[in-house]
Amino acid sequence: MKSSVIIGIILIALGTAGLFYKGFSYESKETVAKIGSLEASAEVTKDVEIPQVLSIILIVAGAGIALVGLKK
C-alpha cells in the first residue's frame, strides 16, 4: 500500500472519530497560591471541544489523498 493511501485512511479515521467524540477532557495540576516556599496546587479538569467542521475537513482531505494515491 502506498503511503499516501495510508495517510488518507488515517485522516478519515481521525475525522470520523472527531464526529463521534465531540471532545475530550483532561486533568492538569495548577498552582493556586504561592507564598514564599509554601505552594498550594489544585487539579483542574479542562474540556477540549473538536469542531465539527474540522472533522468534516479531515474526512474530505483524507478521501482526496487516498484517491490520488490510488490513481498513481
From TrEMBL:
Taxonomic lineage:
Bacteria, Pseudomonadati, Pseudomonadota, Betaproteobacteria, Nitrosomonadales
> Sorted alphabetically, which keywords does the UniProt record give?
Membrane, Transmembrane, Transmembrane helix
Ranges annotated as spanning the membrane: 5-24, 50-70
The superkingdom of the source organism is Bacteria
Record protein name field: DUF3185 domain-containing protein
Species name for this entry?
Answer: Methylophilus flavus
Q: Does the keyword Membrane apply?
A: yes
